[in-house]
Design brief:
With 474 residues, the chain is α+β, with helices and mostly antiparallel strands. It contains twelve helices and 14 strands. Helix 2 packs parallel to helix 5 and helix 2 packs antiparallel against helix 6. It is rod-shaped, with a radius of gyration of 45 Å.
Length: 474
Amino acid sequence: DVVWNAAPAFGVSGMRIDCDMDGYDNRIRWSLTDAQREPLDAILRGAQMSALRKLGGDLAEALSFDFLGDNEAALNPGKTAMELGEAMAAVGPEMAQLMMDMSDFQGDEAALWAAWQDGTLQELAETAFETSMQGLIDLLQPLAREFFKPEALACIRLMYEAEMLGDFMLDAPVSETEKTEMLMKYMEAMMEVFADEPDIEQLLEDGEWETLATLFRDAIYALKGILVEHGLMKWDGEEVTDFAPVTKSATGIEVAAAPPETGQTVEYAISETDEAPADGWQDSGVFADLTSDTLYYLFARAKENATHHVGPAASLAVKTNLYDGETVTGLAPVSKSTIGITVTAVAPENGQTVEYAISETNEAPANGWQDSGVFTGLTADTQYYLFARAKENATHYAGNAIALAVETRKRGDADENGNVNAADAAAILRHLVQLKLLTPEGLINAKVTAGTNPVSAADAAKILRFLVQLELNL
């Protein structure tokens, strides 16, 4: 046994740590001041839990190995005790609260079992380990040596977890027959794991932390396998892969993910925030009745089954589409001349307006769409393709384009009948004497002479010369 006495200056009037190195059955007894009596009572009540009862012993044994070992004479026992007393006093209030939480399960086997099943017990024990061990490490850092290397702490955590699992197996609420079967499997598994490394104490003394960590990982895996097989716990769920959208529309999104190789299926959820929801998970990756042009967050995870918990959720941001645009109707020419074409179309009833485009081919252009159906600067006597479609807006994409082939007028076609003959020259003369006025388009067609002067008898004369081939073209 090793006995240390802490100085009252640190708020602890006395402390005794008894370390039984062979049996791994250790106790910590504190004698606190009156002001600390209430936390002490809570600690003592909570310490009845088997997992946490051993925590103090684990710490005491670990500290004894580290601080004493072969260098006991070189250390100042008073200083060591003072540092340890300070550390214990510092982490005491946090441990007291944790112990009070743990004490809620005392004497209530059903509550204890439920706490194990939903993970509450493991979380409390993990927190207790972190609080005690890390608090001591932080405050005892000036004295810490080999034991407090990160790989050493990681190894001790694994040892602690293996011990908790072993204790739970011994206390499992199963029949004696099943417990015997579990213990036989446990013995076989441990013999296999530790067959080549029987001297754990030597490994500890030599600081073979990586070897020890590997051994205890294997032990934990074997122990969990037995507990899973008998329905007493579950494996952690694994991650899904290849999470991606399949299709989407204005009101729906479909996603899919590949399940892990654990036999778990995939479940999905959707949210307008990037936090995975607690509820609303479903087996299908299809989500309907959504709002158009809205960003949603999709989630996928491995679904809990008989042997595995739910896996971590993968997330994906997907924006719904706008609604499909409707198709305009009634595309028709309004007027045309030698240099221009005007068309119009009827807009759909969904609030979209109409936009237009022109091309010399029958394929709707990607660019050049405009709100007006008026196109100028064209070439006379040339076929063009006019297009109309519903214009994209805040709720709808652009609709499908419809097309119309239109030829510009021939030069000299004053009466707009599609032909150039003497009647066009006569129509110009009637217009000049105001017997019958030409349309604005007819006036454009009639202007066959150079310059910007208004239509005159010279235009009629040039048309007649063209007809008798005195002019080669108009």
